[in-house]
What we know:
- The protein has 2 helices and 5 strands; from the N terminus they run H-E-E-E-H-E-E.
- By secondary structure, the chain is α+β, with helices and mostly antiparallel strands.
- A hairpin with a 7-residue loop joins strand 2 (23-27) and strand 3 (35-41).
- The radius of gyration is 13 Å and the shape is globular.
Amino acid sequence: xxxxxxxxxxxxxxxxxxxxxxxxxxxxxxxxxxxxxxxxxxxxxxxxxxxxxxxxxxxxxxxxxxxxxxxxxxxxxxxxxxxxxxxxxxxxxxxxxxxxxxxxxxxxxx
Length: 110
């Protein structure tokens, strides 16, 4: 069981900023920007590369909610990041989208 599943199951606390029947969003405990929110599906998908055809609507909802959460946080410029696998920086193996904002970002990242 991942830390994100434990957050969903309310076994550990989190600063939840949004939740519906498909996704949950909460502030990252190790923020990399002034605003750093994670949006996760309630369905346990290990990584974006593991999503099935049936997950298209769920992942679309994840992205849409991220844009709404960014607006709620008064962000006009922000970065959305999904890491796929350990080599790409994924450290929790439950699909999650990072909303990062509140400071300028360089390109390329990392």
